[in-house]
Amino acid sequence: MTKQILFLIVIMIGAFYARKHGKKAKSDIENYNRKKNNERIETKLDYLNTHIFYNLKNRNDGFDAKSIYYFSQSDFEIIINRIEKLGFGILGIEPWLNGEFYDIKVVEDYGGVSTDSKWYRKAFEEFKKENKNLLYAASYDIQI
Asked: Who contacts 11 (Cβ-Cβ below 8 Å, separation ≥6)?
């Protein structure tokens, strides 16, 4: 009987401790995960700048979020070639015209997978036929 009472006391102390410190522990874990996610985003942008966007001019002069890079048609074609060569993918292409949203094409529209260059090359060719003064941004599927 004494062992059972001691066991119940230990359980109650554990439950009290969990209630008292559980919320803080959960908050600490969420903050840690948020920080890690932000680091991944920064790392991804650093990777893009170093391995994909090098020697190309970001044409975003403030018309969109600072972290979204826009490129001329010729520079975006270079990006597509680099993405394909490295085996990465593109999830969506979003061109703008004169600082205004123009259109968007995403991998799902073409029934493919992000790493299959056929879809994003076709989408890019369609945009090129529509307008020659577009600035291109994309969401990249890069696993680093």
From this structure: none
